[in-house]
Design goal:
heterodimer, B: about 260 residues, 11 helices
Chain lengths: ~260, ~260
């Protein structure tokens, strides 16, 4: 329905500009050109990072955020792929479910958070369900599209050659839809990545988002930078991880 | 004929859910209306809210922010994306920077931005614009890269000389379909971020209204505002879809194709 979605392309991340930035930052802070209470030099941030990681505090928050992102991707993404494939395959299912998907899909998913809270209370379940739902809708919609864009001829050939329902899924639907399913997954991760920060900013007492916001309010600024760095690390691992898995599973796709 | 039957099926499917919801809440009281308001109550409250000028001020605050964020993000995203798609050298310089920045959720930088930017409203707009830009820029780049290179040769052989002519005759029409996907994602990401930041720190806007209503446990108000936010999202997503159909009549009517053909 929406046309193919493009996402970032792979390139090698060069560490040189980052190293240059760190050196400049350190120097400028050392000379006193920037306010070190707001922009502490990398050496101070590094020290805080080591301290908070060793005593396990930051590690706990990292684990909390990581769990939320991972669960939302596996559960929400898995359900999205499953239902998307079924909706792409069965016209009747597509007809019946279309009104819901069509209405829910464009809604900015963050508004689901207070609704979940009012139904399930201020619980971890509410937070994770909100993120799952967001991933689910994006992935489902992209998967339906992906199945619909498979050329009709492939279906006919498969059926003429004796493919049953299982064969149709295994030989035509899943491989045909796979590249775009991964575009959907990376879009889904993008949204769950926004949501996790918001949710942990305003409605959690664990996670890297919580550390960022509370360090900001308590003015323990170096801790805030450590959390920012770690959240960036999660982003890198997931964005390139999803892409690598996608490339691995669809070797017939040309990558530039 | 089949479309009419499908419409009927869809209507029944929606009505069944609404009726069950109504039965469980308003009629039998299995779920207390204090925890989940009945659909009739929510729609009544939504209409009431729309009549209040203070609520309309929240709507216009969010709408303005989204509009301004898009006015920044769309030209920037299309410009940078086109430049990267057309020119390998530009791509070699700009792309690594964008790749490095991309895995940072812009919203996590909110505390730092509050420090740098004085106005809360502009902080919100800026974050929305940054989020939208990053989604759009890859789509714009890919849209240009995927134009068949033969077209460029044909254009040159037929005397397209100036950059402007190339842009008008080839780049824009060729990339438009991919661009629309990008712009739709850009605007909905901007809206998502704007509502989110309004949750966190704002004294106006629909996000602020929803989060406050939840804090005060005024659930009808909360659902009413959620419906309005959803409507904004629907207007953006399907509005751009309509626009695409108007501007790109040579594309197949995707809506019909996707949801009524095959099986």
């Amino acid at each position: 329905m929406w046309g193919r979605v493009a996402s970032y392309r792979r390139t090698r991340i060069s560490l040189k500009p980052i190293a240059a930035l760190v050196v400049c930052w350190e120097l400028v802070a050392y000379v006193g050109l920037i306010n070190v209470s707001f922009y502490p030099p990398p050496s101070v941030i590094g020290q805080t990072a080591v301290e908070t990681l060793v005593d396990g505090e930051m590690l706990g928050h990292l684990r909390a955020s990581l769990t939320r992102v991972l669960v939302s991707l596996v559960v929400g993404g898995g359900a999205g792929v499953g239902l998307g494939l079924l909706m792409g395959w069965s016209k009747r299912l597509r007809t019946v479910l279309f009104p819901y998907v069509a209405v829910l899909y464009p809604v900015p998913k963050v508004v689901v958070l207070p609704i979940m809270f009012s139904v399930f209370g201020l619980t971890e379940l509410s937070r994770i369900l909100t993120m799952c739902l967001a991933v689910f809708l994006l992935v489902a919609m992209n998967t339906v599209d992906a199945v619909n864009e498979i050329d009709e001829v492939y279906f006919e050939v498969a059926v003429d050659n004796g493919a049953g329902t299982v064969g149709l899924f295994r030989e035509v639907i899943v491989p045909g839809a796979l590249p775009q399913i991964f575009s959907g997954l990376s879009l889904g991760f993008g949204v769950s990545f926004i949501l996790i920060v918001v949710v942990e900013f305003i409605a959690a007492d664990s996670g890297l988002g919580y550390v960022i916001w509370s360090s900001w309010r308590l003015f323990t600024i170096p801790k805030m930078y450590v959390a920012l760095f770690l959240i960036n690390l999660i982003g890198i691992v997931f964005i390139y991880g999803i892409e690598e898995i996608g490339n691995y599973l669809t070797p017939w796709q040309q990558h530039t | 004929m089949t479309t009419r039957l499908n419409r009927l099926r869809q209507a029944v499917s929606v009505l069944v859910v609404l009726a069950t919801w109504h039965l469980l809440t308003a009629v039998t009281g299995v779920i207390s209306t204090a925890a989940l308001p009945a659909p009739a109550g929510i729609s009544r409250r939504t209409v009431e809210l729309l009549g209040e000028s203070s609520f309309r001020a929240h709507i216009s605050a969010t709408a303005w922010r989204t509009l301004l964020a898009s006015l920044i993000a769309v030209p920037a995203g299309v410009g940078v994306g086109f430049a990267m798609g057309l020119n390998e050298r530009v791509k070699a310089v700009v792309a690594p920077v964008l790749y490095a920045l991309y895995p940072m959720p812009s919203i996590a930088l909110l505390p730092l931005l509050l420090l740098v930017i004085d106005s809360k409203s502009w902080t919100i707009i800026f974050l929305g614009a940054v989020g939208g830009f990053f989604v759009l820029v890859w789509n714009a780049m890919t849209a240009v890269e995927e134009i068949n290179s033969v077209y460029f040769d044909v254009a040159r052989d037929n005397g397209v000389e100036s950059r402007y002519a190339l842009f008008r005759e080839l780049l824009l029409p060729g990339a438009l379909s991919g661009l629309f996907t990008g712009i739709r994602l850009c605007l909905s990401t901007a809206l998502l971020i704007i509502i989110s930041v309004e949750f966190i720190t704002a004294d106006q806007g629909l996000g602020y209204f929803v989060w406050r209503a939840w804090g005060l446990y005024e659930l009808s108000d909360m659902y009413g505002a959620v419906i309005v936010i959803g409507a904004l999202g629907v207007v953006i997503t399907y509005g751009i879809g309509q626009l695409q159909r108007r501007l790109l009549p040579w594309q197949t009517d995707t809506d019909d194709r996707e949801f009524t053909s095959r099986r």
